[in-house]
Predict the 3D structure of the following.
Amino acid sequence: MTSNVALAEIAQPYAQALMSVAESNNITEQIGEDVRGLLNLLQESNQLRNFIDNPFVEADDKKAVIGRVLGEGANPYLRNFLMILVDRRRISFLADVCQQYLVLLRQLTQTVLAEVTSAVPLSESQQQTIKEKVIAMTSARQVELEATIDSDIIGGVIIKVGSQVIDASLRGQLRRLSLRLSSS
């Protein structure tokens, strides 16, 4: 993620423009799914990210690669939007714009993002239980889970919703026990 200035000055207005187009065409969720896919692709492929970020690569070459990455079934509004980012030399902010779009989409749908860290992958029922607890805690309509695996927490989960952190991990419990014992 780039600096907050770049986020506020560049990514936010472009994300708002994409949201405006999506809302006027009633395709906010469809664009959201495509944006999530793009973000996953950028996170998984250093080669693609470096190609897009490289200022010495010609705009036509970037457009051709983006066209191939999106494929034929891509939303034409999103495709055109990405071409505008290339033309305006803002494509290097693509990940930030995508993240901002998802923030706007969550606000629109009254969805909160819950970042869940667990020692092992969570089952569907565990994920559903976490979603229900987060809904009760935040009064949101929906919860979007972003799960990560960290074997260092030994067991349990750490849930982060906004600035609130719920540490129900074994590592956290052991740390709290250690602090209590050392202060006694």
User: Anything to note?
Assistant: Residues 111-183 form one domain. The CA atoms of residues 114 and 145 lie 5 Å apart. The chain is about 60% helix and 15% strand. The longest strand covers residues 111-118.
